[in-house]
């Protein structure tokens, strides 16, 4: 028999807790506290994350923390708290003038072709939004942070790309730095990433290779 309840999925359903498994079919940015608290010790929380990944967490014996690995790519609708009319690149571009231009000395093709790089950038730069398009001169990128910072990576032919950026952040530089970090780590695959949730969901972060000793990035 199936018991159907209608309500806010992020709140779980306390009257029937604890559960062996919590399975979500919509993407969250942060794991809801109720999911951790309503799952049995050793139980599993499986959910799409960040509109890009698919993660499985195991709840600890104290039922205040959970950790687990990314299982693959997944794109699902986001939860209601993150559904909003985000400004697009044109709107953000209009909020600040350019503060610099220079060559971007890196082939942009992996931004389109390498899902592992894209996932690593999503972890390191969660605020970054990027649109790619190819023309006769090569691959171009339009980047913004939904607030006031933006960057354009414009192909000008012969494998050359010009970066123009504006706003408080230098997004082209931040993109390159996160890319460098991924390369320095040995190009970890998305399956090498994991998530830890502690303090009943208060602290959440992504890590790579090792939950205790690997590099980590806070989920905000």
Automatic annotation (TrEMBL):
Its EC number is 2.1.1.77. It is an enzyme of class 2 (transferase). Its main location: cytoplasm. Keywords: Cytoplasm, Methyltransferase, S-adenosyl-L-methionine, Transferase. It comes from the Bacteria. It is found in: Cytoplasm. It holds the Pfam family PCMT. Transmembrane segments: none annotated. InterPro entries: PCMT (IPR000682), SAM-dependent_MTases_sf (IPR029063). Belongs to the methyltransferase superfamily. L-isoaspartyl/D-aspartyl protein methyltransferase family. This is Protein-L-isoaspartate O-methyltransferase.
């Amino acid at each position: 028999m199936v018991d159907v309840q209608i309500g806010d999925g992020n709140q779980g359903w306390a009257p029937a807790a604890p559960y062996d498994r919590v399975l979500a079919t919509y993407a969250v940015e942060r794991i809801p506290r109720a999911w951790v608290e309503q799952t049995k010790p050793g139980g599993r929380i499986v959910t799409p994350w960040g509109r890009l990944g698919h993660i499985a967490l195991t709840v600890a014996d104290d039922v205040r923390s959970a950790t687990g690995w990314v299982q693959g790519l997944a794109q699902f609708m986001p939860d209601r708290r993150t559904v909003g009319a985000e400004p697009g690149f044109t709107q953000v571009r209009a909020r600040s003038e350019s503060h610099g231009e220079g060559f971007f000395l890196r082939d942009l093709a992996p931004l389109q072709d390498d899902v592992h790089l894209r996932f690593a950038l999503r972890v390191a730069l969660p605020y970054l939004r990027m649109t790619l398009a190819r023309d006769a001169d090569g691959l171009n990128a339009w980047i913004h942070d939904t607030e006031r910072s933006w960057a354009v990576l414009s192909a000008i032919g012969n494998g050359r790309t010009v970066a123009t950026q504006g706003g408080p952040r230098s997004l082209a530089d931040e993109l390159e730095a996160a890319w460098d970090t991924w390369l320095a780590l040995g190009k970890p695959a998305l399956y090498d990433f994991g998530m830890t949730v502690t303090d009943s969901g208060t602290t959440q972060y992504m890590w790579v290779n090792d939950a205790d000793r690997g590099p980590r990035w806070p989920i905000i």
